[in-house]
Amino acid sequence: MLTGLLHEAIRAGLGAVLLLAVGTAAAMWCLFRRRAERRWRAPAVVRPPTQEPPSPAPDTDLDRGVRDIRRTDRGFDATRFAGYAAMMFRDVQSAGMARDARALRDRVTPTMYVELEARGDRLRASGRSACVAAVEVTSEVTEAWQDGNRDYVTAYVAGSMQSHTVDDATGQVVDGSPTLPVVVAAFLTFLRPAGLNFWTLSLIQEE
Length: 207
Description:
Layout: H1 2-40, H2 61-69, H3 78-98, H4 110-126, E1 128-147, E2 150-167, E3 173-176, E4 182-193, E5 200-206
Antiparallel strand pairs: 1-2, 2-3, 2-4, 4-5
């Protein structure tokens, strides 16, 4: 009988050990499976933080001036006008070379016309001629405004040109250089009656 009890105990102990081993194996299998799932799981997509759109830059005096001019001239274009300012600068230099401002009479104010004519008169009286060549300039509008019933625009013209003065009798250079370029830097101001009217050059300010 004692032997039978011993065998029963041994069988019970082996059963417990077997159950423990099976439970441990199952737990280990679950653990390995979870680790494998973590290892092969696709990484989460990292999304950048939402960025607020930049606030628009505040209007400048030039922006407001252009907007005022466009109230009566919707087609006004500051970039196109800058090209016109550069052309006017070249034409003024050519008029000085010819000592005759009549070609500019309708494109400049009466005051500016008198000044150009006076410059030509001084050259003729002194027996000298102005020579200008290789005028290479660019221009940009720097100011625009409306005052009452008039529009105003100022453009900055910069670049280089060849400029010298010769004696008419001898042909000798008396001022400047026929080969060395000089720096160009000037502000040209134009005005007109507000609306679709012709611009006239009113002032040249050299730096």
